[in-house]
Request: fold
Amino acid sequence: MGEDFEYRTSRDSFLMVRCRSCGVLFLNPRPADEEAARIYPDHYHAFQFDPSSFGFICNIRQGIEASRLRHWGRGLPADARILDVGCGDGFHLELFSKHGRRGWTLEGLDADPRAVHAARQRGFRVTEGRLEDAALDAAAYGLILLVMTVEHLDDPVNTLKEVARLLRPGGRLGVVTDNADSPDGWLFRGRHWGGYHFPRHTVLFNHRSLAKLARQAGLDVESIRTSFSPVNWTYSIRNCLDDWGAPRWLVRQFSLHSPLALAAFTLLDIPLALLGCGGILIGSFRKPELRP
Reply:
């Protein structure tokens, strides 16, 4: 049982429940759809994650994410269509435009009009709404991304089934999401874990439950690995300090604007990732090829 320690959009307490069968965590109950504009405030980080707001931390993240995107883009044809679901302000679309092939068609989708506006301001073609309602072209995309998106979904099974419909045979889905079985997840799981991100994260996965989700959607599991991330370590400490009434100057030392904290927890999480229990899950899934 925890609170919205980060943005204080609600005074309510929120409960994450773990499925004993697959290990998935889910928020119960979930906020109503009409609460979205409140629980995602105007200063929510995904609406404007750029160097002007986050300084060199943004530049470091750009380098890490660009390497990951180049990996997912390998083997795509010159005329491939790429869709970023939950694209936010177009951060990843911008990286693809800089590091991808010139002929790729880049598209985004986001349910929040503020995110859609920010991504369109960057010049990208972005659809507003839920993926299931967007009526996009079937079997048209070579790569679809859900980067820190699947944990926000109300119905991830149906969303991934729609992803499978949109992918061309042999097309790939790339997923990045919080690792519910990471050491920080277990250490702070009672109330303060940063991965809860109450009340915005509605479902959280471990290796097994993420693989099960993909298979339920008809996708083959290519690989699932963990990678390092200092974010949940940083926010777990922040949430503890905030909850315990620490001075605000101290609480502010642990956030996405805190290079020292992020650097320290990066050094901690890198060896954990090498041991297979890093802070985030990186999943690569494929739509099966058509059989003759």
Observations:
- The mean pLDDT is 91.
